[in-house]
Amino acid sequence: MLVAVRCLATDHVPSLLCRKKLCVRELHFLYIVTYQTKSFRIEKPKPMFRSGMYRNILLTLLKEEDEDEEILFTILSKRKRRKTEHIYTDGDKEDHGNSFIKNHLLYDEETYRQFFRLNKKQVDFVLSLIGNNIKKTSSRRVKYPISPVEKLLLTLRFLTTGEKFRSLSVAFKISYGYISIIVRDVLKELYKKLVPIFLPEPQISDFEKIAYDFKTKCNFPNCIGVMDGKHVRVLSPKNSGSLYSDRHYFSIVLLALIDTNSKFVIVDIGSYGEEGESGIFEKSIMGCHMRSGQFRFPVEKSLPASDIVVPHVIIADEAFRLNDRVMKPYPKDQAAQDTTKAIFNDRLYRARRVSENAFAILCQNFQILSSPIAVLPETTNLIITATCCIHNMLRDEYLSTDVSQPDNHETNTSNNNMLPLARSGGFSNADGFRIRDKFRCYFNRL
Fold first, then answer.
1. Which GO terms describe its cellular component (predicted)?
2. Which of 175, 198, 221 lies at the terminal end of a domain, its last residue?
3. Are 72 and 105 members of one domain?
């Protein structure tokens, strides 16, 4: 195959001529290139001018044949696309969607639930919300795009097991590079569609119902939720320095308000691990709303069978500051010396158990939270939010059908990727001490 290339000296003459200070601006010549065995061989050029100066220049070009071949190869050759591996080209015949899922999981409801954490009805419901937004139309380049249901199942499998993208690429026969794009796009749509349904902004009526549940189930009246936080470990983000570091590990903080059914009422995600634990709540959206008065607390009311009027409060542990809206236990040394304070602590610890249950069930259902998450911080925030929404969906289904499910988990912080906040609550105020003493006196009167 002969290829004729007409070149201007100023564009394609080798740099050797410039080093030899040859004046070639007015030179035009013709390269005749022969393609043989995937390499280019330069034949003797046909000079367009017969002057001795131009002959010398062309002879110089012939002496530098190796350099010219490399330049011509760069100019004339195109980078060939890497051949697609057969594991991906045969994916439509062997992947999870066409073989394992259709032939086995669809006929076994329990195995399907264990594999994706959602049953078929729940998957169809989620797919009806996000299916059109993650659907790709066929084109000349991609005749058979990946279906929305396969994208959703792939993302659910990633959240359920925490598998690496390379491992999922073998199972689903999809390139691991494209899997990262699929997971990110699906998580964005889950965030948009599921948060308004399963994590809506609570109203006063919602808090009144939660307070009634705490009074009847946990024997702690005027309580609208348990506040707790966890450090979710992540791999060190690029160029982050010590921003996400909490001395021994890198983390993102999950701060949540939880009801008696171990459901998340409010979540605040994204605080850096290096921030002080006592100030995380103060900097959160929930803390800012409480200080500004935008948080929808129910009105004050008297405790049952008494004339003691106290505001509705949130239960927390030693990691948070005591104030008129946040109750924390008495220090252990004081509780050891005063029986009334020990009784108050016992009531508070029994009510706080729902938060430990919620985080334990969350980690058990979604193994992605059981090891350091190796994605971008923005994607990590989407992962945590999506798992909290799906957790609430599963809790609603559990409460409605009363399916046997372990409901009393105690988190093991030594083996868990979600670590508790440090027990340093910062300064307290006088109103907090006064309200806590009222609860203490009421619990000791019963």
1. nucleus
2. 198
3. no
Distance from the Cα of residue 71 to its chain's centroid:
47
Name which of 17-21, 183-187, 250-254, 363-367 the model is least confident about: 17-21
Measured distance CA(182)–CA(146) in Å, rounded: 10
In the chain, the largest separation of any two C-alpha atoms, in whole Å, equals 118
H helices of 64-147, in order, are 65-76, 86-89, 91-94, 101-103, 109-116, 120-130
In a domain, 81, yes or no: no
Contacts of 95 (CB under 8 A, 6+ apart): 150, 171, 172, 173, 174
Q: Tokens in use for 141?
A: 């380049």
414 in the same domain as 309 = yes
Which of 168, 198, 228 corresponds to the end of one domain? 198
% of the chain residues with pLDDT over 70: 67
**Worst-scoring range by mean pLDDT, 30-34, 362-366, 416-420?**
30-34
DSSP lists the bridge partners of residue 361 as: none
Residues 164 and 223 in one domain: no
CA triplet 304, 309, 311: central angle to 5 degrees?
Answer: 100
Gap between the Cα atoms of 163 and 42, Å rounded? 53
- Domain holding 133, by residue range, is 86-198
pTM: predicted TM-score of the whole model, two decimal places: 0.74
Cβ atoms of residues 342 and 355 within 8 Å: no
Alpha-carbon span 86 to 108, nearest angstrom: 30
Q: For strand 223-233 and strand 313-315, is the pairing parallel, antiparallel, or unpaired?
A: parallel
Same domain, yes or no: 210 and 186: no
- On whether the CB atoms of residues 291 and 305 are closer than 8 A, the answer is no
- Does residue 218 sit in the same domain as residue 321? yes
DSSP 365-418: H-GGGGS-B-S-HHHHHHHHHHHHHHHHHHHHHHHHHT----------TTT-SE
* 238 and 190 in a common domain: no
- 222 by Cβ neighbours in 10 Å (0-12 / 13-18 / 19+) ranks as buried
Which contacts qualify for 27-31: CB closer than 8 Å, 24 or more apart?
Answer: 27/54, 27/57, 29/54, 29/58, 29/61, 30/4, 30/5, 30/6, 31/4, 31/5, 31/7, 31/68, 31/72
- Are both 332 and 364 inside the same structural domain? yes
Q: How many domains does the chain fold into?
A: 3
| Per-residue pLDDT tens digits for 215-239 | 999 999 999 999 998 888 888 766 6
